[in-house]
Structure formats: C-alpha cells, structure tokens
C-alpha cells in the first residue's frame, strides 16, 4: 500500500456548461426580474429608515 492511495479522492471535474441561447422573451423576463429586485431593495432601505411600525389596532390600558 503506497502513501498516495489513502485519503479523500478528488472528484472529476464537470464539463463546462455552454452558454444558453436566450431569446427576446428570456432577456425581457430577466430584465423585469432585475428591476423588481431593485425596487424591493429600495423599499427595504426606505422601511429601515423609518423604524418599526407603531400604533394601529386597539390599545388596552391596564385598568379594569
């Protein structure tokens, strides 16, 4: 038994994936997704600036 046989074996390299041919619909869909993600990020930043939402609903005093 030689010293090189033991231990973890390296996995075979996967072949490189070919670039997909994207048509107009795919490109438009990806662009729309990017815009939606940007809008969502902007909304998250705006919400973080304002702080937690308070109020709304019925407030109960501790009295009975």
UniProtKB/TrEMBL annotation:
<feature type="region of interest" description="Disordered">
    <location>
        <begin position="1"/>
        <end position="64"/>
    </location>
</feature>
<feature type="compositionally biased region" description="Low complexity">
    <location>
        <begin position="39"/>
        <end position="50"/>
    </location>
</feature>
<dbReference type="Pfam" id="PF09072">
    <property type="entry name" value="TMA7"/>
</dbReference>
<protein>
    <recommendedName>
        <fullName>Translation machinery-associated protein 7 homolog</fullName>
    </recommendedName>
</protein>
<feature type="compositionally biased region" description="Gly residues">
    <location>
        <begin position="53"/>
        <end position="64"/>
    </location>
</feature>
<feature type="compositionally biased region" description="Basic and acidic residues">
    <location>
        <begin position="27"/>
        <end position="38"/>
    </location>
</feature>
<dbReference type="InterPro" id="IPR015157">
    <property type="entry name" value="TMA7"/>
</dbReference>
